[in-house]
Design a protein that fits this description.
Elements (H helix, E strand, L loop, with lengths): L1 H14 L4 H15 L4 H36 L2 H13 L4 H14 L4 H19 L6 H9 L2 H4 L6 H10 L7 H28 L8 H11 L6 H4 L1 H12 L4 H16 L6 H29 L3 H11 L5 H16 L2 H18 L4 H11 L10 H9 L4 H30 L1
Helix pairs in contact: 1-2, 2-3, 2-15, 3-14, 3-15, 4-5, 4-6, 5-6, 5-7, 6-7, 6-20, 7-10, 7-21, 9-18, 9-19, 10-21, 13-14, 15-18, 17-18, 17-19, 18-19, 19-21
Length: about 425
């Protein structure tokens, strides 16, 4: 019961906008207290051991990823790639153009927090030309960035990388399931957004710029863009290093960073700033995720955890179903896909591996499941996306919910079904 109460408290505190680093410690303490464990010994022992172990395994990846995203943003490379990809499809296919550009950039290692700011001006131009309501911009970005890149074969995204540590897999595991689910998720999300656009047009709702948006459009019209073929080279370098030469993901991301610095050196006004801000961003990100993992370190020591294992084991049918449910619920409780998949894999991974299920499909189901309930209204990425687009929850969260929760759940069901058939 202590574990359940602690996780409910975690959801409440996150909803109340408590930093997860603080909320996690509070909830870990409550969990220890209600489970009859010494609070301070638990926090300085099991909690910190799990937290530090995650930081040890992933700090370099978080660091180089954040620096890479910063370089691509400040140099204008991310903007140039997005503008080119979006313009090739034209105003008629503006939603597809924006989502495809977002998908390519995210798969290429650009953080979602960076992506939304880089893509927003591009989306404004295309949506204005196509007379599409601004309320649909977050949904169009989500249809590309929050769908396929999380589960696609060879993706450097955390939801695809983290399971490799605990399940003994690689970022290329479960190729067929990965490709099928990625295509379905991406296409379904875009079709939904196209349908929403038609509904807006029926109501006479089109693109209505504010004074702030008019100024932003004028400023970006005067920007000197990088040639797209040059701008995308660091992304290609990273992907080839990771999937072609099969380098460690840390080295692959570092190759992308070096390539970006060499190519865009003269376009970066403050070279040191990319390192400083990138490092600061990485520290915040990894602390949020590792804090969620720390709760798992405490949960593993409780009697409730052992009871949960027994309960999960008693499920009839394939373990894939209970595994999907466990990862989904834990990710929803922590409000973080990466934190949830790390917590689930670290606490339950060994048990499911012991059932004899192929690690590749466990990996793929985990990647799909962790992005279903993590995108609640209080999720950091959701809030950042809407703020970057100068919109409120009331105006645009509906579309984010439909894509990142409803369609994500349907995609998870497809992944489990494919797993049952193919594995």
């Amino acid at each position: 019961m202590g574990v359940l109460i602690a996780f409910i408290l975690l959801v409440i505190l996150i909803y109340k906008k408590f930093p997860i680093t603080v909320a996690a410690i509070i909830c870990a303490g409550v969990m220890a207290l209600l489970s009859g464990m010494d609070v301070m010994t638990t926090l300085t022992g099991d909690y910190m051991a799990a937290t530090v172990a995650f930081i040890k395994n992933y700090f370099i990846l978080f660091l180089v990823s954040a620096i890479f995203g910063r370089i691509m943003d400040t140099s204008g490379a991310a903007y140039s790639i997005g503008k080119w990809l979006g313009s090739k499809l034209g105003a008629k296919y503006a939603i597809w153009g924006v989502s495809f550009a977002a998908c390519v950039l995210t798969y290429g290692g650009v953080s979602c927090f960076v992506l939304v700011f880089a893509m927003y001006p591009i989306a404004l131009v295309l949506f204005q030309e196509a007379d599409i309501s601004r309320r649909l911009i977050p949904g169009a970005l989500a249809a590309g960035a929050f769908t396929a890149p999380n589960i696609l074969w060879g993706s450097p995204g955390l939801c695809n990388v983290i399971p490799t540590t605990y399940l003994g897999t690689t970022v290329r595991s479960g190729a067929l399931v990965s490709i099928i689910c990625s295509i379905f998720f991406y296409v379904a999300s875009n079709l939904y957004m196209v349908w929403e656009n038609k509904q807006c047009h029926k109501k006479g709702e089109g693109f209505v710029p504010t004074d702030k948006i008019k100024k932003l459009l004028e400023e970006n019209a005067n920007k000197k863009a990088i040639k797209p073929i040059i701008a995308i080279i660091p992304v290609v370098v990273m992907i080839v290093a990771l999937n072609g030469f099969k380098l460690d993901v840390n080295l692959a991301m570092l190759c992308g960073v070096v390539a970006a610095y060499i190519l865009f050196w003269n376009r970066i006004d403050n070279k040191l700033d990319t390192l400083i801000v990138g490092a600061q961003n990485s520290i915040g990100s990894i602390m949020n995720t590792s804090s969620a993992v720390g709760i798992g370190g405490v949960a593993k020591m409780t009697s409730t955890f052992n009871a949960l294992i027994s309960w999960v084991s008693s499920f009839s049918g394939s373990p894939l179903i209970s595994w999907a449910a466990a990862v989904m619920v834990i990710s929803g409780a922590t409000g973080s896909g990466s934190g949830g998949v790390a917590l689930a894999c670290s606490t339950l991974g060994e048990h499911y591996l012991a059932t004899g299920v192929d690690p590749a499909i466990l990996h793929k189901v985990a990647s799909c499941a962790c992005i279903v309930l993590d995108s609640m209204p209080w999720n950091g990425v959701m809030i950042t996306t809407m703020q970057a687009c100068d919109l409120t929850h009331k105006e645009s969260y509906k579309h984010l919910f439909m894509i990142t929760v409803v369609l994500a759940f349907i995609n998870l069901c497809l992944c489990v079904l494919l797993g049952l058939i193919l594995y």
